[in-house]
Amino acid sequence: MKIKYLFQILFLAILMTSCSRDGDSKIDEDNEPLLTNLKTGFLYPDLWIINRAEINFIFAYDRQKRVTKKNGGFLSISGSTGFNAMFTDKISTSIIYQNDKVTVEDFYNSTEFTIPKNTKYFTLNAQNQISKKQSAGINIYWYKNDSYFYKNGQLDEIITALPNMIYDPGNPEDKILTYREKFYYDANGNLAKTEYFEQLAGVDQQKERIRFFQNYDNSPNPFKKLTLLEEYFYRSLSKNNFASYKEYDYQNGKEVLKSAVDWTFNYDAAGNIIVN
């Protein structure tokens, strides 16, 4: 964080005043309460969780209010039980910062099971936004690099490259394959939809997928600090909280509904979404 913001925050703390929402979202976010517990399973309506009542994600932060750890996760279980997941506090995710580099990995604190680390390497820009992400896949063909581009402070698009994919530059029919996800926002600064394209040699080809984020509330978004955690990524991009999500795949040029989820949120007397 830049020095001038540190002095501003200290000055505001001494005066015991809150910053106004005058467009400086960086200061606003740093003075908002941090999400430390997520006890409700409302984010996971599509999971049949055997012990849903036990869900309790715990988040830790450093002095710069950057998330450093998430404790809690899900284990897949046999469908014969009537469920497909079980919550456990033995799974944790570490987020380690080193200058502009960040490493995110999963761990299981037991010898009973082993889980993949799902290692991700991030590079941050000067505004502490994600600039690049490198994912360690299960084989070289799934290895991928994501580049993030912003417009007016908001994520505008992500370009995904597959650097280890076999490519024959001598074959004019064999072009470099990439993917592009374009982000669109409403007048309130909330993510409205994304469009996902397959690209050949950097040129959009067919549309692969479209996502809609709808039915926003007026409550402050408690997930804005969790952009580096994949399951909260899309939620973290907005000012408020979407209660409806639809995802369509394109097959033969037609939209085919792949997923549709609706949430019912509870709020406290101040209008804040209840997550614990």
Features:
Porin, disordered N terminus, YD repeat-containing protein, 14-stranded antiparallel sheet, mainly beta, 276 residues
Task: Outline the structure in words.
With 276 residues, the protein is mainly β. The chain folds into two domains: 1-31, no CATH class; 32-262, Porin, CATH 2.40.160. The protein contains three helices and 14 strands. The protein has helices at 3-15, 25-31, 233-236, and strands at residues 37-38, 57-61, 67-76, 85-98, 101-108, 120-124, 130-135, 144-151, 154-161, 177-185, 191-200, 203-216, 242-251, 254-262. The chain has a 14-stranded antiparallel sheet, with no helix packed on it. A hairpin with an 8-residue loop joins strand 7 and strand 8 (144-151). The radius of gyration is 20 Å and the shape is globular. It starts with a helix and ends in a 14-residue tail after the last strand.
Largest sheet: 14 strands, antiparallel
How far do the termini sit from each other? Answer: 29 Å
State which percent range the strand residues make up: 35-45%
Name the average pLDDT.
83
What is the helix fraction of residues, given as a range? under 10%
Described by the principal axes of the CA atoms, the overall outline is globular
Structural class: mainly beta
Q: Strand order, main sheet: write it out.
A: 1-2-3-4-5-6-7-8-9-10-11-12-13-14
List SSEs in N-to-C order. Answer: HHEEEEEEEEEEEEHEE
CATH class of the largest domain: Mainly Beta
Uncertain residue segments = 1-28
Number of strands: 14
CATH topology of the largest domain: Porin
**So how many helices?**
3
Q: From the 3D coordinates, which CATH architecture of the largest domain would you assign? A: Beta Barrel
Structural domains: how many:
2
Q: Output the radius of gyration.
A: 20 Å
